[in-house]
Design goal:
single chain; Rossmann fold; Ribosomal Protein S8, Chain: A, domain 1; 7-stranded mixed beta sheet; 4-stranded mixed beta sheet; 13 helices
Length: about 375
Amino acid sequence: MANQKIDHWRALWDDAYEQPVGDGDPSLNLAGWTSSYTGLPIPLADMREWVAGTVGRIDSLTPSRVLEIGCGTGMLLLRIAPRCEIYRGVDFSPTSLAYVAEQVRVAGIEGVRLFEADADQLALPASERFDLVVLNSVVQYFPDADYLRRVLLGAIQHLAPGGAIFLGDLRSRSLLPCFHSSRLLRQADRDRPLSELATQLTGDVASEVEWALDPADLEAITAYLPGSVSITTQLKRGRRRNEMTCFRYDATLRLEPGPAWGRGADGKDVVADWRDEALSASIVRGWLDARGEADLTLQGIPNARLVEELKALRWLRRPEGLETVGELARAVRRARLSGIEPEDLWRLERGGVGDELRIEVDWQADAADRFLARVSR
């Protein structure tokens, strides 16, 4: 069954990669990147932001020797490889590898080698070691947790001491109902009964073909890996609202303990609740200026990307007198829900607050419409 799923995705992506690139940027070949909301190609501005955010996150890990499993058309490889000592790209599609090879040749990038293989069947020299293994926007095409575990075991065999594994663009399992409801509500006629849409939502979630997993699922999978694995998860970068920024996240795995967050100079946790303290980005900036020696964990931050979508999902499931899609949309508008853009917190990194900051922004485990931010020097 697992092999059948892999063969299905291989055929689908090979077909997508056969399509002409057009007159656009050959380093941004968007074959197969179709919006779940419109069925049309995802807007170029959205994809440029998505690529820039992913490249920036990988660059923050300062890699020199990179193995990318599922390199596709090279959107990451062609941007990151020029700054690396070596870069190995693996993909199950010979069509995509031929395309990347040509772009590497034209750009004159050195240190790149490409291999055709399934993700769980790497055939690299045993002596090769990498400080970063990248799997970006490919895990959703894996058949199950066992397959991911095999892939991670293979990656670990090629990981240098202190290295990391970057899992990018992971689809959130707990947010699948919210994702599908936002899609259905955007596509539905205004006079369509909510009861019909709720029935369709149940079926669409149950028949989801792309794999999704939550951070807790990832912890369960990595528990069976050799050694101690630390996991850091973060929301996707970007201000543009789309299915990537709203419903996906990145994870970084390390075979060693991760950093201790939210501890001040006295070793105690410094935690502030966004709602209780009536915080804002400017207030947080002032707090950091006043207590520059301490790290900070901000929790309970309302997520501007999801507050309306999650409210609409709750009303779709329990209409409370609402009968049609149009009535629900008007009710959400009247509710005047607001939140904080995650990018406003990341902006503090370059806000001139004392020493250089590091900020990680993650969903809050007990509240899907809230996120938390960990601020450290």
